[in-house]
Amino acid sequence: MDIFESDDSSTPLTSDEKNGLKLKWIMLRSELNEAEARNIAKAQIWLYSNKNKDVCSDIFLRELHKRMFDDVWKWAGTYRTSERNIGVVPYQIPLKLMQLFDDVKFWIENKTYPNNEIAVRLHHRLVQIHPFPNGNGRVSRLMADLLMEKLEGRKLYWGNKNLVNVSEVRKAYITALRKANEGDYSDLLEFTFAE
Length: 195
Ligand SMILES: Nc1ncnc2c1ncn2[C@@H]1O[C@H](COP(=O)(O)OP(=O)(O)OP(=O)(O)O)[C@@H](O)[C@H]1O
Ligand SMILES: [Mg+2]
Hints:
Elements: H1 15-18, H2 29-48, H3 58-69, H4 93-110, H5 115-129, H6 136-152, H7 168-181, H8 186-191
Helix pairs in contact: 2-3, 4-5, 5-6
This protein binds adenosine-5'-triphosphate and magnesium ion.
Magnesium ion binds near residues 6, 10 and 134.
């Protein structure tokens, strides 16, 4: 199997984007996952000393994505330019993100939803827009956690497993996202909730 073929309902990379791999020695998906995980661990350290940043902006989103994937991918921190079976058309990405962050700020100010629901809605809208060629799930889960930490002093719960690998937990997560696509956030709220 081609290591770049996704192992879930997410999107395969175009051949152009395969060229974007900085680490030419990578042959296996497991090696790619590990290299990305190391890069993300570095980003976590950076986040730790940059706690006061405003996370509700496209500038922060791009910086975070770059910090998470820049050791591995040339296009880290830049929006996708090709269409996918998920996500908005590429030229609409900046506008859709601007609208999303405006909405999130409005929800916070007006207490439109409970804090965890604001974070969950941010997460879902981000993966729906799908701004980047890859890494949308991971950057969007982290964005939701960062917002939740600011609002509530704790993270969301994402199941007891690493969601990157195929598992029952990942299946439940994707099913909950599909339901959220239809406007019903109940399963995603339940999935991300822990006492
Ligand atoms: N049907 C769907 N509706 C909404 N979002 C979806 C759907 N299928 C997948 N997603 C989201 O897209 C993500 C996959 O996109 P992408 O491959 O860009 O991110 P990733 O960070 O590499 O993925 P992951 O960390 O989940 O392996 C999933 O994690 C999920 O958040
Ligand atoms: Mg992926």
